Amino acid sequence: MVHVLGLLVWTLIAGTEYFLYPAFGWVMFVAVFYWVLTVFFLIIYMTMTYTRIPQVPWTMVGLCFNGSAFVLYLIAAIVDASSVTKDLDNHNYNSWAASSFFAFVVTSCYAGNTYFSFISWRSRTLQ
C-alpha cells in the first residue's frame, strides 16, 4: 500500500513545474528514493529471497529502513505542505496540495511500519 501512495506523491509533483522550486526537488528526491527502495524490498519479500541470505539481520534492516523512511518522509511532507501556496503558481496548486496530503499519509504508513518493525526486532533480540 505504501508503494502505491508513494507513487502517487511523486507523480502528483512530477506533473508540475516542480524544478522551479527547490523545496519540491527535495520532496521528489525522498519520494522517488523511498519508492524505489520499497519496491526493491517488496520484491525481496515476495520472492522470499531473505530466506536464502540468513547472514543479513533482516529485522534490523527493516527497522532501519522504515525508521529512516519515516523521518525523511516526515521532513519532506512538512516541506511540501509549507511550500504549497497559491502565490507560487495557481496552475500547480491542486497537485501540490494533494501531494502534501498523500505525503502525510505515506508518513503515517511508514510510522506504522516502523512500529511493527520495532516489535519484530524486539521479539527477535529477546529470544
UniProtKB/TrEMBL annotation:
Transmembrane segment boundaries: 25-46, 58-79, 99-121
Domain of life according to the entry: Eukaryota
GO cellular component: membrane
Membrane topology value: Multi-pass membrane protein
GO molecular function terms noted in the UniProt entry: structural constituent of myelin sheath
Keywords, in A-Z order: Membrane, Transmembrane, Transmembrane helix
Record-given protein name: MARVEL domain-containing protein
